[in-house]
Write a structure and sequence with these properties.
Elements (H helix, E strand, L loop, with lengths): L13 E3 L2 E3 L3 E6 L6 E7 L2 H13 L1 H5 L3 H17 L1 H12 L3 H23 L4 E4 L10 E8 L3 E4 L7 H13 L3 E4 L6 H11 L8 E3 L4 H9 L5 E5 L2 H10 L4 E5 L5 E4 L1 H4 L2 H14 L13 E5 L3 H13 L19 H16 L3 E4 L3 E2 L2 E2 L2 E4 L6 H4 L6 E7 L2 H9 L3 E2 L1 E5 L3 H10 L4 E4 L15 E2 L2 E2 L4 H7 L1 E8 L5
Length: about 500
């Protein structure tokens, strides 16, 4: 959309080389709940994209040579800036994504924590010394191993966590001394643009952090540009694997989707209080982001002998959820991101019903707001059972023993995280060993994530790991220095 001359329209700037810039086409951000305008920014021109890449490329050595204390100081400043701007960012996030206000507050706090963790890890970013005289040929030799940045990073973040998942790109890059060009999701760019502003205020080199909005055509050029040899992508498998195929010579980390399962073990199903507590967590974290999280609970596996009891507990918990205006601090479930998403989710539910599934609760729609839904007797080949629904829909499945439950989880082509509600330590360790996923959460939902732990999946859920220290390792490569002729 071309920009008009009405200077009363406040446009959120992009950030290139530490300076605010505007492109020549408007990007109007829609509010999913009201349908109104949540904000306005712009799309970068070809020249601005080139400038962002050129700044990053020029800053490679300066950033890599930046002392650890300077990196840590900048990261702490961004963390403090996020805390100070919390209300501003929460308002932006609720407007652009429809995320309930209570969850937006948590997201800002988590993002601030990501930068704080990165500051701590940056100060400890050191090398390792290894004596080589364990073998006769290594007498008098010592190896010093350090990690150096692979190069400038292209970070591509998704719409569902517009600040925290952008933080997981930017913070580790600064910590290891790698320039980054961040491309936020076009549906929710406003929160991510704040990071450009805060980074510019730290005194980091001009090319350290640029945040730009681009259309799909320019995004393809960004991906292919050899001056951005590292790509960190979070989003759909279709786009992620398309990137991997397009640039096999680059270092690519992919955090993709899932259809996360949670197992209710027999010991919890038999305990009335334990079952109610588990189902309350499952109901909330199958729906809190309107199901728009790659680790939202999608499949709920319960023992056959206690199926009705478990189903009733889940339905009761789902009905207790508060749905409505995301600006209301008591709202737990807001709208999905846009009409295309709402149409797709509703069509998948209808397909499952036509195949024999039964709606236990929900399956109603008002605009972009979908009532939290539970289905049972879903055909095994239904898309809502095999794919990522990315909406407020869960399916109930029965199992006869824990081995069958593990096999049901592993039949998925995804493998991000799984949850297991049990107090049996033997089952917990077996789940860790046998479940083909990137993370097993015992005593809670698969949605749990601590920002400092390794996070990522197997199979079609991605390649590589995030989490501050894991991402720092991923953005760097080892370089060995061998010292010879030493008297060890």
């Amino acid at each position: 959309m071309p920009i008009d001359n009405d200077q009363s329209v406040e446009r959120t700037p992009m950030w290139i080389g530490g300076r605010p810039v505007h492109g020549d086409r408007e990007l109007v951000v829609q509010d999913p709940f009201t349908g109104g305008v949540a904000g306005v920014t712009t799309l970068a021109t070809d020249e601005q994209v080139e400038r962002a890449i050129r700044h990053a490329d020029a800053a490679r050595k300066t950033m890599a040579d930046l002392p650890l204390h300077a990196r840590a100081s900048a990261l702490r400043a961004i963390s403090a800036g996020l805390v100070a701007a919390r209300e501003e960012i929460v308002d932006l996030m609720v407007g652009e994504s429809g995320k309930p206000r209570s969850l937006a507050v948590v997201e800002v706090e988590r993002a601030a924590s990501v930068f704080a963790w990165a500051a701590e890890n940056a100060r400890q970013w050191s090398g390792a010394v290894t004596r080589l005289d364990g073998d006769p040929s290594g007498e008098g030799r010592l190896a010093f191993v350090r990690r150096y940045p692979r190069g400038s990073v292209l970070g591509i973040s998704p719409f569902n966590f517009p600040l925290n998942l952008a933080a997981h790109k930017v913070a580790p890059a600064i910590a290891v001394g790698a320039p980054i060009v961040l491309k936020p999701a076009p549906k929710t760019p406003l929160s991510g643009l704040v990071l450009g502003r805060l980074a510019a205020e730290t005194g980091l080199p001009a090319g350290a952090v640029s945040v730009i909005n681009v259309d799909d055509l320019i995004a393809t050029k960004l991906v292919s540009d050899p001056r951005l040899p590292v790509i960190s992508f979070t989003g759909s498998a279709r786009v992620g694997y398309g990137i991997l195929r397009a640039v096999p010579e680059k270092h690519v980390t992919l955090e993709l989707g899932g259809n996360a399962a949670v197992i209710i073990a027999q010991d919890i199903a038999e305990d009335e209080d334990g079952l109610a507590s588990a189902m309350a967590r499952i109901a909330l974290f199958g729906n809190a982001q309107a199901g728009q999280s790659c680790v939202s609970v999608q499949r709920v596996l319960v023992p056959s002998a206690l199926y009705e009891r478990a189903r009733d507990a889940l339905v009761s918990a789902v009905r207790d959820l508060r749905q409505g205006d995301p600006r209301d601090p008591t709202t737990q479930v807001g709208p999905v991101i846009n009409a295309d998403a709402a149409d797709r989710i509703a069509s998948w539910v209808e397909e499952a019903r036509e195949g024999g599934a039964r709606v236990v609760v929900g399956a109603q729609r008002s605009g972009l707001t979908l009532t939290p839904t539970v289905l049972e007797d879903v055909p095994a080949d239904a898309r809502i059972a095999t794919d990522e629904v990315f909406g407020p829909v869960m399916i109930l499945e029965r199992f006869d023993d824990i081995d069958e439950a593990f096999a049901m989880v592993n039949r998925s082509r995804f493998g991000l995280q799984a949850g297991v509600f049990t107090r049996d330590i033997a089952i917990a360790f077996r789940a860790h060993r046998d479940l083909d996923v990137g993370g097993v959460i015992v005593g809670d939902v698969p949605t749990y994530r601590s920002d400092q732990m390794p996070y990522g999946g197997v199979k079609e859920s991605g390649v590589g790991r995030e989490g501050v220290k894991s991402a720092m390792t991923d953005l760097t490569e080892e370089r060995v220095l061998v010292l010879s002729g030493l008297d060890l």
